[in-house]
Write a structure and sequence with these properties.
The chain is an alpha/beta fold and 245 residues long. The protein has a single domain, classed as 4-Layer Sandwich (CNF1/YfiH-like putative cysteine hydrolases). 21% of the residues lie in helices and 24% in strands. The strands form three sheets. A six-stranded mixed beta sheet has the order 3-4-7-6-8-11. It has a four-stranded mixed beta sheet with strand order 1-12-5-2, with no helix packed on it. β6 and β7 form a beta hairpin. The longest helix is centred in the first third of the chain and has 14 residues. The relative contact order is 0.22.
Length: 245
């Protein structure tokens, strides 16, 4: 009888530096849907895989649509998972990738159960409940809320994310805790604050946050600051050290 290999949950957030894309996608753009040269995107994605010690086929991508669809994946996918904004897996050495340029990337794990998830939570997805949906999917394959750790990656901050007052009120009604006022004194949204509250109220054991604002931080891509632009990636996987690039 052999024991399962030890798993270590790892997370990575990229920046815009160190890739092959030309302006305005310079340079480590990982989005294949923003108008960048496909060859440059492929080179960037291959470099990401090598950088985390996996082969490119072990990275699972999504066709993100600002919805609340969640898919549980049990192995590599040759193409991005269609019409999906959250991925869940229990498979070691399979990296789940979420692309963002202002929306909130959420990386979740129950290390004990061996369950991980990557979530794309923009204003629409967060408003309509992508977070409860992904928690439900994680629990269906063995996770428990109190064991789940969540990481909220770089995103548009409440001090910069300006929206009409009616939109702020609508999102606040569906995602309490997200309404804010920007540095300009205008209505704004802090989606990470609302998501953090939602996760905590769902019993999630720990929530960590990267405080960087994509609109302010020039080392990150921001659709609001300057479109067209590239996409950074949030990546989560359970490493056994057995798959090498």
């Amino acid at each position: 009888m052999t024991s399962a290999p030890a798993r270590t949950v790892r997370r990575v957030t990229t920046t815009r530096a160190g890739g092959f894309s030309a302006p305005p996608y310079d340079s480590f753009n990982l989005g294949d849907h923003v108008g960048d040269d496909p060859k440059a995107v492929r080179r960037n994605r291959d470099r990401l895989a090598a950088g985390i010690g996996l082969t490119p086929d072990r990275l699972v991508w999504m066709e993100q649509i600002h919805g609340r669809n969640v898919e549980i994946v049990d192995g590599p996918r040759a193409e991005p998972v269609p019409a999906t904004d959250a991925l869940v897996t229990t498979v070691p050495d399979l990296a789940l990738v979420v692309l963002t340029a202002d929306c909130v990337p959420i990386l979740l794990s129950d290390d004990e159960a061996g369950v991980i998830a990557a979530v794309h939570a923009g204003r629409i997805g967060a408003r309509i409940g992508i977070v409860p949906r992904v928690l439900e999917a994680m629990l269906s394959v063995g996770a428990r809320p109190e064991r789940i750790g969540a990481f909220l990656g770089p995103a548009a901050s409440g001090r910069q994310y300006e929206v009409p007052a009616e939109m702020r009120a609508d999102v606040e009604a569906h995602l309490p805790g997200s309404a804010t006022t920007t540095v300009r004194g205008t209505p704004g949204l802090d989606l990470r604050a609302g998501i953090r509250r939602q996760l905590t109220e769902a019993g999630v054991g720990a929530v960590a946050e990267d405080p960087r604002c994509t609109i302010e931080d020039q080392t990150l891509f921001s659709h609001r600051r300057g479109a067209p632009t590239g996409r950074i990636a949030g990546v989560i996987w359970m490493s056994t050290g057995e798959v090498q690039a």
